[in-house]
Specification:
Keywords: Cell outer membrane, Membrane, TPR repeat. The chain has 646 residues and is α+β, with helices and mostly antiparallel strands. The chain is built from 12 helices and 35 strands.
Length: 646
């Protein structure tokens, strides 16, 4: 614990699965199908599955597909119904992810206890909890330690006085210090008994070694009370800095902090004006500017934040006015203190925090600012960070030299007043959390890439982590946290969504999606078997009688034919190459005829149907006579097709 009080501490005293559901675009205008069916353009898989299930037919595939279709469209009450039917049919479904989906649907409909039970089963099956606990913060900090050579700033360092700051313009360092022994009417700061902080400058060489002596800034910049944290625009004609609330009307507000701005005219700093984002009722302090000078970052304990003090950003308009402050969010801000932001020329945010895991009091953290948010948050490691409070970090991207302020002491574990250190960064920071997931999204039936599929990553709490889209080649890539697992979901209009669980502790992994069409246009040549997931109508060996398990598949076709009374189908049956060619031809014809008869017996006019057996004449792979193939390869050829004809 600290055994002394520092001035910046008083400055900071008063700074003191939500599930994204991608609803398919049902309202989007569909292109016209064949003229014969222009009033009913598409076969909708969900509608057909529902019709089959409501007739009393049961199968794991049927209930899973139906439940998933409701789940991915946020119809959680219906999802609960059909996932429940699935688990009644098979208490241990083949695909573990249905435990998660059932849990989320239960949670969304208010059954939290049952949801928790199924989520626990899912995490135990997937190993999610083990992966989540894999992170060792101390080891990660160690990986980024030892990258700095540093020493106290000569001619400024003084254990009897306070100095801190980082902003260097040209060869001049600007900082705040209690170096002045004179005080207003011999009055000293009630915070520490020292003189009030004032703004100073000192000339440095290219190695950041002091050449001369400190000089107090002239003009109207230094008031009777505290000034600190000066930063300048690129032309050096505008300064933003922190000042005590010298205009407070109430005694309780006079220790609040405000940000002021001063303009240099004729080489003289003008009277500073406070910014519109200030208030007498909370503190606003420690400004930092974006590289192009259009954004102002700062720390504040204003209402609505996450902790004692948060980091905010506001736009600096062309007329000099300041826009509405925006909180940087929970990725940056914690229940503790976040303060002293610095933005590098490469759009990197450095700041100090005692709310993120660190080595001592305030530690310096790094995060890359991206167009869509932030990169991974990293502790910069020792020796920048210590047991003490380390803050006011700033670095020159071209020289890799910079400054850090700290109340550390050479006697480890003791504290002194804040002082400035100069450093050289000898190696770039390592993104110890970096990992990447990439893959292809293709059409399951055609194998063609699917462009503009939406890939959503959610964490174990079902909160959205990131979202990307596949490109024209169906490819996607997304950066992740190596130590976390994610639910990676792919969605595309008129396709069934699909979801996988990524693995933790892998820097690179590939997750490909093959999405199945859930709506097909009623045009000549369309195969209903593809959208209705009917790869084969099963028959007993050397038989052509319809088995009971095949009836569920034929009920799907029957539902389509009943829905579209003008629709005509050609039923095609195929075998693999094993066995006599002529016999396979006859067997496939008998099976196609048997399939036709089932549909006719269930009310479909025979005039709407044709039955054709192709035997082994239309193989879809290399597995012809005499070619050695696996059972799975032969299975590809034993297929059923239901082709729309004129």
């Amino acid at each position: 614990m600290k055994n002394s009080i520092t001035i910046y501490s008083f400055f900071l005293f008063f700074l003191g699965f939500s599930s994204l559901t991608l609803v398919l675009g049902q309202d989007k205008k569909m292109e016209k199908a064949a003229e014969n069916y222009e009033q009913l353009d598409y076969v909708n898989a969900q509608k057909i599955y529902l019709a089959v299930a409501e007739k009393g037919h049961r199968s794991e595939e049927l209930f899973t597909k139906l439940a998933n279709s409701y789940y991915f469209n946020a119809q959680y009450d219906q999802a609960v119904k059909w996932y429940g039917s699935l688990f009644e049919l098979n208490p241990e479904p083949e695909n573990d992810i249905v435990y998660l989906r059932y849990s989320q649907a239960l949670k969304a409909t208010g059954d939290a206890n049952k949801a928790s039970d199924y989520f626990d089963v899912f995490t135990s099956k997937s190993g999610l909890k083990t992966a989540k606990n894999a992170r060792n913060y101390a080891d990660l900090i160690q990986q980024n330690s030892g990258r700095y050579d540093m020493e106290a700033l000569s001619k400024v360092y003084d254990e009897e006085k306070i100095s801190f700051g980082y902003f260097k313009s040209g060869n001049i360092l600007y900082y705040a210090s209690t170096s002045d022994t004179k005080t207003f009417l011999n009055k000293r700061s009630a915070w520490d008994g020292l003189s009030f902080l004032s703004l100073y400058s000192i000339e440095l060489d290219s190695l950041n070694q002091a050449l001369g002596h400190s000089e107090k800034l002239t003009g109207s910049l230094n008031s009777k009370f505290h000034e600190s944290s000066p930063v300048f625009t690129a032309d050096n004609n505008t300064m933003y800095f922190t000042r005590s609330n010298i205009t407070a009307k109430n005694r309780k507000d006079d220790q609040k902090l405000k940000i002021y701005r001063s303009e240099k005219i004729n080489n003289k700093w003008q009277t500073a004006e406070e910014l519109s984002i200030n208030s007498d009722h909370f503190s606003t302090a420690h400004p930092a500017l974006s590289p192009n000078g259009t954004k102002l970052y700062f720390s504040s304990d204003r209402p609505g934040g996450f902790g004692e003090s948060d980091l905010y950003v506001a736009t600096i308009n062309t007329d000099g006015s300041i826009g509405e402050p925006v909180n940087l969010g929970p990725e940056i801000n914690t229940r503790g203190k976040e303060t002293f932001p610095f933005i590098s020329a490469d759009h990197e945010l450095y700041f100090s925090s005692d709310g993120h895991f660190g080595l001592g009091g305030l530690d310096v953290f790094y995060v890359k600012i991206k167009n869509d948010g932030f990169g991974n948050l990293l502790n910069v490691g020792a020796p920048i960070n210590t047991y003490a409070d380390d803050f006011a970090f700033g670095i020159d991207q071209s020289t890799r030299r910079g400054f850090i302020s700290s109340n550390r002491s050479e006697a480890d574990g003791t504290f002194v007043y804040d002082n400035i250190y100069t450093f050289l960064e000898t190696a770039p920071i390592i993104d110890v959390y970096f990992a990447q997931i990439q893959g292809l999204v293709t059409d399951k039936q055609t194998g063609l890439p699917i462009e503009d599929a939406i890939i959503v990553l959610t964490d174990s709490s079902n909160k959205i982590y990131k979202q990307v889209r596949s490109n024209a080649e169906g490819f996607y890539t997304v950066e992740t946290d190596k130590f976390d697992s994610y639910f990676v979901k792919a969605t595309k209009e008129r396709y069934d969504s699909d979801e996988y669980l990524s693995k933790a502790n892998l820097e690179h992994q590939r997750i490909d999606f093959q999405l199945q069409t859930n709506e097909v246009p009623l045009v000549t040549g369309t195969d209903l078997a593809k959208v209705l997931n009917i790869p084969i109508i099963y028959f007993d060996f050397d038989k052509s009688d319809i088995r009971q398990d095949a009836q569920v598949e034929l009920e799907k076709v029957l539902a389509v034919l009943n829905e579209y009374p003008n629709l005509r189908l050609e039923i095609r049956s195929h075998t693999d190459s094993r066995g006599n060619d002529a016999y396979n031809q006859k067997l496939s014809q008998r099976r196609a005829t048997s399939t036709l008869k089932y549909l006719v017996d269930n009310g479909i006019p025979e005039s709407r149907l044709q039955a054709v057996g192709f035997g082994e004449s239309r193989l879809v792979n290399k597995c012809s006579n005499g070619v050695p193939c696996s059972a799975d390869e032969h299975q590809e050829n034993r297929r059923s097709e239901f082709i729309i004809i004129d």
